């Protein structure tokens, strides 16, 4: 009993020592820090991904554009994104992007579907699929997004240069699919035929489809009128003029609040009088010949008719101006704008040349880029939008672009997709569909290497290997000596 009492007194005395108090403080501080860390982790886990994940990629791969944010934040109906992938095979780029969409709206739910566990699920939507594909569904509408459309390889660069170049189109595909499944009625664009017109093809046709714009061909030779469901009439590079009857049908369509986009080339066999008279009603006329630019900063390849026009502020051009994109128009016809007697008509020059531009009246037969006698002095417009206010707040709109090279794929690549964006912006503007994915670019996945001079490498090596460790060591020795003296 005596030994037990002595032991208890010893234990009690040890609790009262300075070392115990210091150790107790350390334990308490450690417990508090651990509790704070656990609470912070729990709180961070409950926060949306856009508040806890930061996009440090050079191309901002995981940062959604304003168009996507506006569309997703305004959702009023539930959307399910099915991620077709086996456990452990999730593509991290895609997973991070999907988290960003979920964080923007409670109406978006991402559900993983293992094709091995649910072999018949995907068959309801598509006959074949690749892992890491997506299905975006709302109500009875859905769109299947193939893996090959999300991660796109540049085969031209591979075959010609032996280099693999990949792009990530996840945002463009997902935003387009969301816009599609929530849209009740998609805009319809009719393409005029019967006069040697060009058609939409390649990447432009794909881009129009992804922008959720439907296209149909229209021959006014066999139709009594432009259909009432036409949101826009698109006329691309006709080789022959329309008839008087067709002209009347188009004018009647505009009088009902119609929209017309006319993309022309400098004529080779005489002016297209009837088509141009429709535009003349709005004060837009074409100059004879082909535009040659006198300002070297306004053309490329040393070729003065490969025009880089100035973009003027407008709904259709502002997104390009904000992102620093250009439009390239080879072989364009100069457009001029004149006052009309109709005060209800307003005109905007979208693309313009410099003051030193002029039009070569020799056209395709020009032999020099110098201005000669008879050539028409500029400046000119190369794309013009006009609108007329009709009764009951209805507007008719026309857009005239004076070069079909706008829709050429190689020309578009020279300006990193600027031509395509401009074209889509015009269609969406006329079809009142500005909120769709009109200018969301694929983002390159190419590795960007940090290159430094040898002197910089040497300096960083000395700092990291020598100076910083030495500084920490000196601080540690100083603290140790101070405690030793106590």
What does this structure look like?
With 486 residues, this protein is of the alpha+beta class. The protein has three domains: 2-46; 66-157, Glutaredoxin; 188-432, Rossmann fold, CATH 3.40.50. The protein has helices spanning 2-15, 18-46, 49-52, 66-73, 92-104, 147-150, 155-161, 170-182, 202-210, 244-255, 273-280, 318-323, 409-414, 418-430, 454-485; strands spanning 79-84, 108-113, 133-138, 141-145, 151-153, 166-168, 188-192, 214-218, 232-236, 259-263, 284-286, 290-292, 299-300, 303-307, 310-311, 329-330, 335-337, 345-352, 358-360, 376-377, 381-389, 395-401, 443-444. Strand 9, helix 10 (244-255) and strand 10 form a beta-alpha-beta unit. It is elongated.
What would the keywords be for this entry?
Rossmann fold; four-stranded mixed beta sheet; Glutaredoxin; 486 residues; 21% strand; single chain; 3 domains; alpha+beta; 15 helices; elongated; eight-stranded mixed beta sheet
């Amino acid at each position: 009993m005596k030994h037990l009492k002595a032991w208890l007194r010893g234990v009690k005395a040890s609790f009262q020592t300075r070392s115990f108090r210091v150790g107790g403080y350390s334990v308490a501080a450690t417990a508090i820090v651990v509790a704070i860390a656990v609470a912070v982790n729990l709180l961070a886990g409950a926060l949306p991904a856009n508040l806890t994940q930061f996009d440090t990629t050079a191309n901002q791969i995981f940062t959604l554009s304003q168009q996507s944010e506006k569309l997703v934040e305004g959702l009023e109906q539930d959307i399910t994104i099915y991620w077709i992938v086996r456990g452990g095979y999730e593509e991290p780029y895609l997973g991070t992007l999907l988290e960003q969409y979920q964080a923007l709206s409670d109406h978006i739910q991402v559900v993983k579907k293992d094709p091995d566990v649910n072999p018949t699920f995907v068959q309801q939507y598509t006959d074949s699929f690749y892992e890491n594909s997506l299905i975006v569904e709302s109500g009875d509408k859905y769109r299947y997004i193939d893996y090959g459309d999300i991660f796109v390889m540049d085969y031209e660069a591979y075959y010609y240069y032996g280099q693999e170049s990949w792009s990530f189109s996840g945002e463009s595909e997902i935003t387009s699919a969301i816009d599609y499944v929530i849209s009740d009625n998609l805009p319809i664009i009719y393409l005029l035929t019967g006069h040697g017109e060009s058609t939409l093809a390649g990447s432009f046709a794909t881009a129009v489809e992804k922008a959720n714009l439907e296209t149909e061909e229209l021959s006014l030779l066999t139709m009594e009128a432009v259909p009432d469901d036409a949101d826009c009439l698109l006329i691309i590079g006709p080789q022959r003029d329309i008839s008087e009857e067709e002209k009347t049908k188009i004018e009647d369509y505009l009088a009902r609040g119609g929209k017309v986009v006319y993309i022309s080339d400098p004529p080779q066999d005489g002016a297209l009088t009837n088509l141009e008279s429709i535009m003349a009603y709005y004060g837009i006329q074409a100059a004879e010949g082909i535009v040659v630019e006198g300002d070297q900063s306004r053309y490329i390849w040393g070729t003065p008719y490969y025009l880089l026009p100035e973009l003027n502020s407008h709904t259709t051009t502002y997104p390009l101006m904000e992102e620093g994109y250009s439009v390239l128009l080879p072989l364009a016809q100069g457009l001029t704008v004149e006052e009309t007697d109709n005060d209800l008509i307003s005109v905007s020059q979208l693309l313009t040349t410099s003051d030193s531009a002029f039009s070569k009246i020799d056209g395709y037969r020009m032999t020099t880029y110098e201005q000669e006698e008879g050539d028409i002095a500029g400046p000119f417009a190369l794309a013009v939008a006009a609108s007329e206010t009709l009764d009951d707040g209805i507007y008719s709109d026309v857009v005239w672009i004076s070069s079909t090279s706008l829709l050429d794929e190689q020309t578009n690549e020279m300006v990193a997709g600027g031509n395509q964006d401009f074209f889509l912006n015009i269609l969406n503007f006329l079809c009142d569909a500005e909120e769709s994915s009109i200018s969301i670019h694929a983002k390159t996945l190419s590795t960007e290497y940090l290159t430094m001079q040898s002197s910089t490498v040497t300096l960083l090596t000395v700092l990291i290997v020598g100076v910083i460790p030495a500084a920490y060591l000196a601080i540690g020795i100083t603290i140790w000596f101070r405690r030793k003296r106590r």
